[in-house]
Design brief:
Helices cover 25% and strands 22% of the residues. With 625 residues, it is an alpha+beta fold. It has four domains: 196 residues, Galactose-binding lectin (Jelly Rolls, Sandwich), CATH 2.60.120; 33 residues; 102 residues, Phosphorylase Kinase, domain 1 (2-Layer Sandwich), CATH 3.30.200.20; 235 residues, Transferase(Phosphotransferase), domain 1. The N terminus and C terminus are likely disordered.
């Protein structure tokens, strides 16, 4: 409909990215000054739009518009003194352009680094550029291409075919610096965009009045039909708040669900479909219209973090894809509803399979236990070493390991995930974890590295081999945890006594010794002596030898202090009953599967910090039934 009234304005595009309206060479460059974060923005003229995604990790008040901070002597038009930038992805769209060939010119100037010999001159910004889905600039470095900061450079693309919409995509691939001169100085940056046609623009009237009227009326009818179809699908089924618009604009690898879809899948959140209860809300089983079974986490809308933080967390989680991680299908923000949709795990959690009631336990043979251990290790190795962002889970335990229909292990609960900033490993604001699984340096001093997950994995590995809970099995009064018993048996040279008696003789003694020794190696009190998770995978597969150290439980003051903390933790557990403890077997099994939390005073801090999750705790915390 709009194509009928073509003028020169519909065959060209001039945008001052990140700056006010200005003129250059007789062309009027439109203003682009909104400073939103991950969002979608359309220009007042409706001739162009942009979307950005990503957040600057660790930066509370980030700006998405850059200015000439160092007063660089920038030659050229005024629009080089400002720019738009984004943490991950920045897309500009030219809307309703006349079909044909266009010349696209992109204007750049690096204005966020200094041109002196100070620290602020050491930054490197590297990103890629794609036009119409085709990469045209790879590993583009503005400063290097322009031979310095404050130097202007243009990149021309003389023949870009456009049918109606032009897409210019600038995106960061994780290269270059990200904290020079300040945290968050990285990602794509652009000063201006110029788009002009390679064809002659006809400004005369080309169609008879009657034909124009007929086409306009037909277009209106088609538009109304499209709007009606979108309304039927629920696109206009309610008030879209700002957070929902931002979620739609994010370039997530997940789906966006409507509330009506989730209500239909869960029978309007029928209590009969409730399969668990986490700290921030219940979990429901649901069936989508196509027959897919899902798990729906209904988060509290009263979360302090709010919907914006929810969107940011979803953006992080959606980037994590691995066979041994619970798959995120999508999410829903509508009204006051915050929902996360995950794959449904038929065999519940590993804790229930090993420590649940007699009618709930699974008969897990030795080969399956080996596969489960290997799967957990591979999932953690991915989080620590293989994903683009290094992630420390912080709460590895049997309740956070789910089992699919084939008893394959998948790690859940990324709400406790901590972006592992290598320069800031001492977490002084909050300790999040579960008693009996936390590494001593994390529990006592709040010192967090990926080796804390290695320690927790060692505890879980010991539980899988023995079939006993680390926090609830006490063969003797002086033993606080299952791990204490393992130390004693190691000193006695009788580690095979740890193997689950339910296995009988149907297991490999050699493999059992290897797994137990890996467990003891992972739970070494010194984090520097624990292996990486990739090494653990190789050890479990027999590709690397295992030599577990002999741990003397009373040979160091640090270990003595840790034992005192263990006693304190156990006392805390006895006052907060765990639904799978020995003393609670007679309780109502309809209660959700949960673990005790612990409050720990971090040395050097006046406040107590409590084991709580972040925005997405217990994402699929399942019920014993």
């Amino acid at each position: 409909m709009f194509m009928l009234f073509m003028s020169i304005a519909d065959t060209s595009l001039f945008i001052n990215c990140g700056g006010p309206r200005t003129s250059f060479e007789g062309n009027n460059y439109e203003a682009d000054t909104t400073n939103r974060g991950p969002s979608y923005f359309s220009s007042p003229s409706d001739r162009w739009a942009f979307s950005s995604s990503g957040v600057y990790v660790g930066l509370q008040a980030a700006s998405y518009i850059a200015s000439n901070t160092f007063s660089l002597d920038v030659s050229g038009p005024d629009f080089y003194n400002t720019a738009r930038l984004a943490p991950n992805s920045l897309k500009y769209y030219g809307l309703c352009l006349q079909g044909g060939s266009y010349r696209v010119r992109l204007h750049f100037a690096e204005i966020m680094f200094s041109n002196d010999s100070t620290y602020s001159s050491l930054g490197r910004r590297i990103f890629d550029v794609a036009i119409q889905g085709r990469v045209v600039l790879r590993d583009f470095n503005i400063m290097e291409e322009a031979n310095g900061v404050g130097k202007v450079i243009t990149k021309d693309f003389p023949d870009v075919t456009v049918s109606s919409t032009l897409e210019i995509h600038l995106y960061w691939t994780g290269k270059g610096t990200n904290a020079i001169p300040d945290r968050g100085v990285y990602g794509p940056l652009i000063s201006a965009i110029t788009v002009t046609p390679n064809f002659r623009v006809d400004t005369g009237s080309g169609l008879p009045v009657g034909a124009v009227i007929g086409i306009v009326l037909a277009s209106i009818v088609v538009l109304l039909l499209v709007l009606f179809a979108l309304w039927k699908k629920g696109i206009f089924g309610g008030k879209n708040n700002q957070e929902e618009l931002e979620l739609r604009a994010l370039d997530l690898q997940t789906g966006h669900f409507r509330l009506r879809q989730i209500k239909a899948a869960t029978n309007n959140f029928d209590p009969a479909n409730k399969i668990g209860e986490g700290g921030f809300g219940p979990v429901y089983k649901g069936v989508l219209a196509d027959g897919a079974i899902i798990a729906v986490k209904q988060l509290s809308s009263k979360s302090k973090q709010g919907n914006r933080e929810f969107v940011n967390e979803i953006g992080m989680i959606s980037a994590l894809q691995h066979p041994n991680l619970v798959k995120l299908y999508g999410c829903c923000i509508e009204g006051n509803q915050l929902l996360v949709i995950y794959e449904y795990m038929e065999n519940n959690c590993l804790a229930r399979a090993l420590f649940g009631r007699d009618d709930q336990r699974l008969n897990i043979d030795w080969a399956t236990r080996k596969r489960i251990c290997s799967g957990i290790a591979k999932g953690l190795a991915y989080l620590h070493e293989e994903s683009r962002l290094k992630i420390v889970h912080r709460d590895i335990k049997c309740t956070n390991v789910l089992l699919d229909k084939d008893l394959n292990a998948k790690i859940s609960d990324f709400g406790l995930a901590k972006l592992d900033e290598e320069e800031n490993t001492h977490i002084s604001t909050r300790i999040a974890g579960t008693v009996g699984y936390m590494a001593p340096e994390y529990a006592m001093r709040g010192y967090l590295t990926d080796k804390a997950d290695v320690y927790s994995f060692g505890v879980v590995l010991l539980e899988i081999v023995s079939g006993k809970s680390n926090t609830n099995y006490r063969p003797k009064e002086e033993f606080v945890y299952l791990l204490d018993w393992a130390y004693v048996l190691q000193e006695q040279g009788n580690l095979l006594e740890l193997v689950d008696p339910r296995l009988g003789t149907n297991y490999s003694k050699k493999e059992a010794m290897r797994m137990i020794n890996v467990s003891l190696l992972c739970t070494n009190p010194s984090p520097t002596l624990r292996p990486s998770m990739s090494s653990v995978v190789s050890m479990l597969e027999g590709k690397l030898p295992v030599q577990a150290p002999i741990i003397k439980r009373t040979t160091s003051d640090d270990e003595m202090r840790f034992k005192s903390f263990e006693k304190l933790s156990h006392d805390s557990q006895t006052t907060q009953v765990s639904t799978y403890s020995q003393d609670s077997q007679g309780q109502n099994m309809n209660a959700p599967w949960s673990d005790s939390s612990v409050s720990v005073s971090v040395p050097g801090k006046d406040e107590n910090v409590t084991s709580t999750s972040r925005l997405l705790p217990d994402l699929y915390n399942v019920n014993l039934d």
